[in-house]
Description:
11% helix; 2 helices; 240 residues; single chain; five-stranded antiparallel sheet; 2 domains; Immunoglobulin-like; disordered C terminus; four-stranded antiparallel sheet
Amino acid sequence: MVKNLACLAILVGFVWLIYPTIFSSPLSGELSHDFGVVPIDRPFSVLEHTFRLKNTTDHTMQLTNATPTCGCTTTDWPDDPVPSGEELVIPTHLKLRRSQLRSSAIRLEFASGEVVVLNIRGVGRFKQPMSFTPQKLELVQGDEDGVRGVLKLEWFDKSKPPGPTVETPEGVRVEFDRWRMTKVANPNKGTPQNWTMILSVFQEAELKGDIALRVSIKGAPVLQIPCTTESTNPEESQRE
C-alpha cells in the first residue's frame, strides 16, 4: 500500500511538470536559462535572471501563481494582467550555497487555465575552495600542545592535492599532517572531492597584537586564518 502511494505521488509530480509541454505554450521566448559554472562567495551567492515572455494568445493573461520546485529559487511574479501581444516579465533568483549543481522548475499558472513551466539551473564553485575550522585560533605562548584546527579543501582534479604552504609571523610555528579525502566527487551533482588536514599552531614567543596565518595552495586564493594571542605562560598562571 505504501509503495503504491509512493509510485502514485511520483506519477502525479511527473504529470504536474510535463503537462504544460504536451500542449503549445501560450508564451513565446526562452523558457529556460542555464547560468553554467558560476564562481560564488561564502556563505552563498544569489544569481538573477529575468524571463521576458510574449503573450501569443488572443486574450489577456493573468498570472495567479508561480511555484518553484526548489527552495533555492524565488521569483517576483507580477500582479498586473498581460494583454495579448504584450510582454510578461518574471525576475527569478537562484541561491547557490555549495559547490554543486542546482536546478529548479517554476510552474506558472494563469487564471484562464494555461500552465507554463520555466527552468533554471547553475553550477556553483566557491571562489575560495579552502576553509578553516575554527574561524579564529586562540594562541597561548608556551603551550606545548598548541592549538589545532581543520583545514578543508574542495578539489576538482583527479590527482591528490598538493600540500599547502603556510606563512607565519616570527614566533609562531605550524605543523600539519597529510590530506585525507572525506568525500568523493559526484559529476552528476557537480560536487568536488572534499579533503581535510589537521593544522597544529604553536606560539613560541611574545607577539604584538593579533596576527593571521596565510595558507596557500596552487590554483586557489590565499586563505587568512586570524589568531588572537596571549603572552602568559600556562605554568606561570598556575603558580600565581
